Amino acid sequence: MAAVLSYLTPTLLLPIALVAALLCFFGRYWQIVRGPGSVHEHILRQSGQAAQSVSRPRCTFAGTCHPLERADAALMLLLTAVYACTAFFQLGSTTNPQSFQDFSQTKTVELRLSQPVTVSSFWYYPGLGTGDYNVEVSADGVTWSTLWARKDNDNKITGYYWADAADYAPSYALPQHYADLFKWLEIEPENKTEFQYLRITGKSNKSPMELGELALFDSQGQRIDTASLLAEPTALFDEQDVVPEKPYWTNSTYFDEIYHARTAYENIRGIYPYEISHPPLGKLILSLGIRMFGMTPFGWRFMGTLFGVLMLPVLYAFLKNLFGKTAVAFCGTALFAFDFMHLTQTRIATIDTYGVFFILLMYYFMYRYLTLPAGTPFRKGAPWLLLSGLFWGIGAACKWTVIYGGVGLALLYFIGLWFKLRDWPRTEDGTGRAVPLGPWLAATLAFSVLCFVIIPVCIYTLSYWPYASAAGDTSLSNLVKEMWNNQVYMLTYHQGVHDPHPYESRWYQWVVDARPILYYLDYEVGEGMKSAFGAFSNPVVCWGGLLAILSVAVQFFRRRCGKALFILIAYFSQLAPWFAIGRTTFEYHYFPSILFLCFALAYVFNDLFEMGPPRARRQVYALTGCAAVLYAAFYPVLTGLAVPRWYTTNLLQWLPSWPF
Question: Which of 145, 209, 463, 492 is most buried, by CB atoms within 10 Å?
């Protein structure tokens, strides 16, 4: 027993305690919704209805769509503001190199300093393009030394050194490969050197090949004031004031930012993009931040973070419309605001954020349409169909995962259509329809084709305009050709992604938070300190949401509840496609489904508020507060803040597979 107790460290006690609390919470929930003394049954008895007569009611989506009230606006803005502060905090540098020296077509740049300098290391900041550089230095402009790379038996670089360049071909030892772009890279040769002349020759394999800035350091590690030693300004040393104290995620690209931030910048520059494994619109939205704040980490992360903030008021309005209770809308939205992946995934310059944002909108407007009662004139339902289809088209042009949601959207649409046909009102004598059904059905189907097929196809195709423009042909035929060729490429590419990855995971691991993906790790931020962050879900949302999904499924069959059916279809339309996908996958692919875990939890909260005693309401607030506490505790490993290693090891690594 003593051995067992000694093994139960705080790291293990915390998840055990949370699981126990969640089981107690849902145990109490099922006791309330199934108990003979439930408020629900009391209402039925008061209305003179027998429980058996309503045990299997007719399923429908139609119902009241509850509006926002003044209290809702205040709480919604408060929650959004609090989250925005945590999301934009230390998002990234606003001052990175903006001018670049072009090294395309084996171009050489030679510089002369006003006096010799002794250099022990240097940093460089690559811009667009890939290739390699031959770096040479000389004390007199006659005898030159070259930077060489030392490699192991696997041809991996293990170090650098300066050596004589005479009688040797150029080394091209300094890399600028696809994973090196827009980040500060450090080179520390084994031997320091003194020089007055610097010569760099680029060998590009994708033009333009650009180098943003160099920073030279002396034997004491102090940056040399190179700008004052140059007779004429040069793009390689013209922004020395933006050289950071150290290369870090706040001043450099990390993870898939090397693809998406670069592609967004290429779209601005009119260059045919490098990353074409996803549709273009997400990168075009991302580029708006770069246009506003420059090609800086803050610039390429701004739009994603902003969209993450904007999700909250939309979600709040959705939950209020759905359940009609301010407390339920607030708690459900708070769970998403305090979800770990919502924060981490919207702060990184990738396109997943935009997909989830438009998934939320397309389902919101579809719900507004579905709640209209049978017999509603076409003109009152048309705006909701138009908006739902519009945002589905925009989302699909950002990322294909939105198309998965489109399957759920279509399923809800046709189920809702069948419900409306089934419940269409008749005249009092029952001889005919009170509102003509034929014209309504014809107009609705025709308009739906426009909203969910024609408009999305047009949006999707037009999103390829930058591709056609960069190719020099913006004709309709070439625009369609570019679009179609990219679809073939994307399908082939994603089918071929099978390389093993240390943080890969499958869908059945996502639903229990079994294997987060680590985006960044740095042990050189201070003695005994570390900086790391990754993508995974708040355990309250992930584990509690899974129990809520199971509860919602049971309640759908017990009550024939349209709200439950809506949530289940939305959740599984995002998750189920991954059951059969064999490519390498990661935890962040669960991001769209996490959104609907919050809906499922809100469904449970709503039942407790309707049927439970006051104590049950306090439990809802306690669970929401627990999510907020965990958000604060895990915040450093969601945003890369430097913290003591003991903190992450002893308090945050709840499971052995969590890489903190």
Answer: 209
